[in-house]
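[Automated response] Your request has been received and processed.

Submitted sequence:
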Amino acid sequence: MLQKEKIRYETPVIKLAIDRKLLTVEKYEECKDLLKKSKKIGLESTIEEILVKQNILTQQQLSELQEISNLGEGGDHFGGYQLGKLIGKGGMGKVYDAVHEFTGRKVALKILNTVPSKDETIVTRFFQEIRALAKLVHPGIVTLYDAGKAGRRYFFAMELVQGTSLAQFVEKHKPLSESKALAITRKVAMALSFSHASGIVHRDIKPENILIDESGTPKITDFGVVMHRDADHMTLTKEGFMVGSVYFASPEQVKGERDIDGRSDIYSLGATLYYMLTGKMVCTGGNAQEVMTRTLVGSFISPKKFNPRVSGRTVRIVRKMLAKNRDKRYKSMDDVVKALNHSSRLQMVLKLAAFISGAILLFASGVLTQRFFPDLFFQ
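Generated structure:
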């Protein structure tokens, strides 16, 4: 018991490792002995380095434990949540698999970094994401559960989607079948239609920001760069400043225009559909500037070049979604949904027609065979 108290107060990372059964007290004591021997012969090291060298902990495990211990509130507890593994990180903060201590609900807990919290723009973006999620209750959008501040850090808890990102899904299965790609696009378009009707433009639709749950349902996440278009909107966009991923950003985003509307999300969703159908980006280049230049002036390359099985109707849908002039795109996400619905029904009709034609052909061939070669049936 005394050993555990000593570990708890002297080395919180070690305590976390022991609590999570990544390390035993016995192994820890062995490593402490090795550390003492190393120092006696003049080798400077740390207990963490010894644990990694002895293959007891990996460097990744050690880094994750260090991140959690740096959060405060007892290391593996934060804002009323027990932290699990790190599942994502970015410029604003980190996302952990976590469990609410009182309700037992599993969540994805996003915690804003300490240093960026001093940056008013970063903090405002963080609040902007919370505010957007609070307004958007839809099965195709991750659900917000809780938000607050613990110590010097802001956080919010959202739905934990058990599955993978669309980017990982496509990388594993690329290219996706046309029917699968259209089905995912249709569901995302329906969620974005709801978002737009609520006065929120996402502005960063891309495969990484679409999660696929275990049932195959897509859910939109990461509303950190949204634009609110309601009466008390707050927007951080400045003229000439681009917001969004370079590979999926609309031409108007690349130009840094401030007047961004739902048609920008239509372009980004079209670029995402193109990626699902081909496994390739709409615009590529050796650097970001080349990609942005091609987004503005490059010619459309049909997805059929990379995937000949894509139908002509789907090519037309993709082309219209990716029109460089936003006035030539679909006017709204509802129009995109209608086009996708019509395409899906057309595919079903064609499949049914092909099945019926095949059945008729099979029946006719059987009748003709029986008529001209009766001996084959009566032997």
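Summary generated for your ticket: Residues 163-345 form a domain with the Transferase(Phosphotransferase); domain 1 fold (CATH 1.10.510.10). The mean pLDDT is 83.
If you did not submit this request, please reply to this message.
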